[in-house]
């Protein structure tokens, strides 16, 4: 991925030399042309076309913003309800992610999703312990959210 | 109303929403029964509160004074990076220090793991 970005920047700089105008606009234009050239030549590259991964990162950020807003609506609903009748608890969740960066990212995202805060990791890093604000009806939903986050992170780092 | 006033109005609404979120987060910290549930209100709501307030300030300065402040954007980024980690560390430390959970808690899958770990540590001390 880093190699492809480097190639793209070199194409953009070459474009600037050909235009003989050294401005941010012509760099941006050359960069876009570089993206198109890399897209055409994607079969000859060792890795996948790197814009796919950029797109996955953008999707992850969008998912994250939506989940953050949902989480806050959830907290508002619980805080402002006249009676506190939620049932908190700690749930263990297995994860398929491997590297430390991925697991840290997943834990941070879990902390900002509706009704869950990551509490602890098991020593082998395969299980995340999550404090959930409402256990009975949330457990399936947590699994579902976790799957969507986990899949989004795997798409970014595959 | 021209474009400038409308965008200043949007900035004001963002800041107002941010301060309301901060108040709700404070109410949550008072109302919830134990450390663990309080951290829910503490991490999520105050993160969004800071985000909305800083975004409103950024928009206001960008439109009214034509001054793009990158520091505000960096502030948003740093709060986003650090707030979940801080919440995680605080409740992790609380759990390891055997802080009681609220009575309404119905499930605890971490208890066995921690007690097992502590037993192992005790045995290695004895040896």
Q: Can you put this structure into words, describing what you see?
A:
Chain A has five helices and three strands. Chain A is mostly helical and 158 residues long. Chain A folds into two domains: 42 residues, no CATH class; 107 residues, no CATH class. In chain A, a hairpin with a 5-residue loop joins strand 2 and strand 3. The longest helix of chain A has 31 residues. Chain B has one domain. In chain B, helix 1 runs antiparallel to helix 2 and helix 2 runs antiparallel to helix 3. Chain B is elongated, with a radius of gyration of 21 Å. The mean pLDDT of chain B is 82. Chains A and B meet through helix 3, strand 1, helix 4 and strand 2 of A and helix 1, helix 2, helix 3, strand 1 and helix 4 of B.
Note the gap between the termini of chain A: 11 Å
Most strands sheet of chain B: none
Oligomer: heterodimer
Give the spatial strand order of the biggest sheet of chain A.
Answer: 1-3-2
Q: If you compute it from the alpha carbons, what radius of gyration of chain B comes out, rounded to the nearest whole angstrom?
A: 21 Å
Structural class of chain A: mainly alpha
**Low-confidence sequence ranges of chain B:** none
The number of helical elements of chain A comes to 5
Q: Report, as a whole number of angstroms, the end-to-end distance of chain B.
A: 79 Å
Secondary-structure element pattern of chain B, one letter each: HHHEH
Number of DSSP-assigned strands of chain B: 1
What is the H/E order of chain A? HHHEHEEH
- Characterize the biggest β-sheet of chain A: 3 strands, antiparallel
- Provide the low-confidence segments of chain A as ranges: none
Total number of domains of chain B: 1
Number of strands of chain A: 3
Mean pLDDT of chain B: 82
């Amino acid at each position: 991925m880093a190699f492809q970005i480097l190639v793209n920047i070199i194409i953009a700089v070459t474009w600037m030399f050909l235009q003989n105008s050294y401005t941010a606009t012509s760099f941006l234009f050359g960069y876009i042309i570089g993206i198109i050239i890399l897209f055409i030549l994607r079969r000859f590259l060792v890795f996948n076309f790197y814009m796919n991964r950029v797109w996955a990162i953008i999707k992850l950020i969008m998912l994250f913003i939506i989940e953050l807003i949902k989480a806050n609506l959830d907290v508002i609903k619980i805080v402002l309800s006249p009676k506190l009748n939620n049932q908190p608890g700690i749930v263990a969740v297995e994860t398929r992610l491997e590297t430390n960066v991925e697991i840290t990212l997943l834990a941070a995202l879990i902390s900002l999703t509706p009704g869950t805060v990551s509490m602890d990791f098991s020593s082998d890093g395969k299980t995340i312990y999550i404090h959930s604000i409402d256990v009975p009806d949330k457990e399936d939903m947590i699994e579902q959210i976790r799957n969507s986050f986990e899949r989004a992170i795997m798409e970014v780092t595959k | 109303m021209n474009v400038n006033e409308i965008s200043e109005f949007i900035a004001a609404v963002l800041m107002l929403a941010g301060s309301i979120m901060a108040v709700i987060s404070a109410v949550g910290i008072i109302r919830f029964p134990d450390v663990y549930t309080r951290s829910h209100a503490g991490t999520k709501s105050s993160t969004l509160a800071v985000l909305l307030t800083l975004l409103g300030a950024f928009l206001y300065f960008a439109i009214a004074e034509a001054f793009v402040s990158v520091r505000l954007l960096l502030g948003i980024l740093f709060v986003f990076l650090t707030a979940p980690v801080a919440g995680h560390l605080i409740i992790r430390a609380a759990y390891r220090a055997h802080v009681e959970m609220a009575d309404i808690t119905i499930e605890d899958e971490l208890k066995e793991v921690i007690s097992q770990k502590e037993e192992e540590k005790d045995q290695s001390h004895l040896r």
